Known about the structure:
This protein folds into 2 domains: 2-131, Response regulator (Rossmann fold); 142-212, Arc Repressor Mutant, subunit A. The chain is built from 10 helices and 6 strands, in the order βαβαβαβαβαβααααα. The chain has helices at residues 10-22, 34-44, 62-73, 88-95, 113-124, 132-140, 153-163, 168-175, 179-192, 203-212, and strands spanning 2-6, 26-31, 48-52, 78-83, 102-106, 128-130. The protein is elongated. The chain starts with a strand and ends with a helix.
Amino acid sequence: MRIVIAEDDFLLREGLVLVLQGEGFDVxxxxxxxxxxxxxxxxxxxxxxxxxxxxxxxHTDEGIQAAVAARRSQPGLAVLVLSAYVEQSFxxxxxxxxxxxxxxxxKERVGRVDAFVEALERVAGGGTAIDPDVVxxxxxxxxxxxxxxxxxxxxxxxxxxxxxxxxxxxxxxxLHVTENAVHKHIRNIFLKxxxxxxxxxxxxxxxxxxxxxxx
Length: 215
């Protein structure tokens, strides 16, 4: 797997290189600013990009904007974004153009190498990996009239784990329920969110996007 890293903190950038190389990944470029990142993506055509949210010059959302631009210039590029803080709106910005092959993790997860690598591989495989702390805060900020308020506590748990990028079997294992129960909960989630079968819409993706949307 070929990886480009964009992180302006030199020590963290070098740490990411060492961690990923130690796990057998091919880090083809490691840069510290958005322009160099986009150039590296164009040059190396990586499988995955690992990108810091806050980068020069203003250290606001340059990393997210660069990640979105990279996915547009290289369709299918998987992107795993790292952030020092829970910044929910950036997750929805990244997912706006499609939920396949995207991840959003807090930087503290990098130290948990097994979990970090698992998230990276899931994103590289076209899945989604959203930090559980981001997921938890999203539910805490819901308005009373939000359709998500229709969900039972168990249905919220199922949607929460779904938003992290896990499939039905993994959700069942995480919540210690049967896979059949997970199917039932997901069916109820679709009904309560008014997500009807549609050849043009992936209802799982639509549910997750609705969950991540703070509007």
